[in-house]
Amino acid sequence: MKDHIDAVESNNPGGEEELQRLLAPDVDSLPLSPPSAVQSNFVSYFAPDFMKPGHDQYVYRHANGLCVIGLAPSHVAFKDKVGVTAVDFNVGKTDRSGIKVTGKRKKNAQHFESNSALCKVCTNDASYIVRCCVKGNLLEVNDRLIKQPGLLNSSADREGYIAIIMPKPADWLKIKASLMDIEEYKKLKEVC
């Protein structure tokens, strides 16, 4: 065995340095902070001024096709001094928080159009309707927002998401054309 190790080392001079370079990357080339779970697992899209001016929303699309819907940082509800004070999922004909989807085929999932109302977000001064943005089946709404609406103020892009939608692939391709990627969105908001 020792002969084999000596033979490998003699055939690969500087192998130790190469191994060290591969195992321990240059610290100067690493980012200051690692990418978040959203950045590494989802592709971010934005729907600025969705249905009304200032009603900016995000759509985070996972590789499995599911879309997480929420309020973009530039949404008009965040302009209020206090921020979001209440979230009501009782819009339309049914209470969205009462929907329970089960099984592999997502039984009981309601189908929504891109302009369907998901919930009403209230501030001290006004209330805003949050729309689906994506045509598909509603799998889940974030029930935590009913008791903790402050999650929208503190972490709207993570724990403060509004809903999870499962679009059909053909529907996604149609809606994707109308959404902006994160770079386009940042450029638009820098100009405004």
Could you characterize what this model shows?
This protein has about 190 residues and is an alpha+beta fold. About 25% of the residues lie in helices and about 25% in strands. It has seven helices and twelve strands. A seven-stranded antiparallel beta sheet has the order 7-10-11-3-2-1-12. It has a three-stranded antiparallel beta sheet with strand order 4-8-9. It has a two-stranded antiparallel sheet with strand order 5-6. The protein is globular.
> SSE string, helix = H, strand = E?
HHHEEEEEEEEEEHHEHEH
Oligomer: single chain
Widest β-sheet, arrangement of strands = 7-10-11-3-2-1-12
Determine the fraction of residues in helical runs and give it as a percent range: 25-40%
Strand content bin? 25-35%
Number of helices: 7
> How can the largest sheet be summarized?
7 strands, antiparallel
Look at the structure and give the mean pLDDT. Answer: 87
Q: From the helix content, strand content and strand pairing, which structural class follows?
A: alpha+beta
Question: What's the short version?
Answer:
With 192 residues, this protein is of the alpha+beta class. Helix content is 27%, strand content 26%. A hairpin with a 4-residue loop joins strand 2 (57-62) and strand 3 (67-71).
Which descriptors apply to this entry?
192 residues; alpha+beta; 7-stranded antiparallel sheet; 3-stranded antiparallel sheet; 7 helices; 12 strands; 27% helix; 26% strand
Give the helices and strands, then pairings.
Elements: H1 2-11, H2 15-23, H3 37-41, E1 42-47, E2 57-62, E3 67-71, E4 86-88, E5 90-91, E6 94-95, E7 110-112, E8 117-122, E9 127-131, E10 136-141, H4 144-147, H5 150-155, E11 163-166, H6 169-176, E12 180-181, H7 182-191
Antiparallel strand pairs: 1-2, 1-12, 2-3, 3-11, 4-8, 5-6, 7-10, 8-9, 10-11
